[in-house]
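Reading a protein record of the kind used here takes little practice once its layout is understood. Each number in the token line that follows is a code from a learned vocabulary of backbone shapes. One such record is shown here in full, so that the layout can be seen directly:
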Amino acid sequence: MRADIYSLTVSVMRYFFVAAIIYILIRIVYHSINEYNELRRVKDWIEKGYAKHIEFLPPYDTNENGFILVKTNLIGRSRKCDICIDDKSVKRKHAIIFEKRGDVFIKRKGLARIKINGEQMTNRLEELLDGDLVQLGRVKFYYRVKRTSFREEAEHE
């Protein structure tokens, strides 16, 4: 009787661990494919001569050409964010800028305060238009659909 229970337990554990390993491998492949598609999309934008950028205003303009946005961009003070802003007025995870069906939106995280063109964001989600001035805490940046020369971007890499 004990041998049967032990044998059953061992079999269940074996299948559980095999299933867990397969699940992890599938997630790794899934994320790798998504990352590859993101990079391909940005390369396509640049090759076509435009890309979606954010350009910080002084004193945060550390990147002269601004940051090229990908499909989803987490902005905040945390080092885990896609765009890290070292300013105490910005929350650790302040906002997400993402693209959906060709339009770009900003979504605040939690109770974070965001101003667009000087007006407090009232909804949790707002569409960004070319030239909008966005303020997270004391940090300001412009959202732009910017013409970019592919050769210039290739030289920076």
Notes: The chain has a mean pLDDT of 83. The two ends are 66 Å apart (CA to CA). The longest helix spans residues 2-48. Residues 66 and 134 are 14 Å apart (CA to CA).
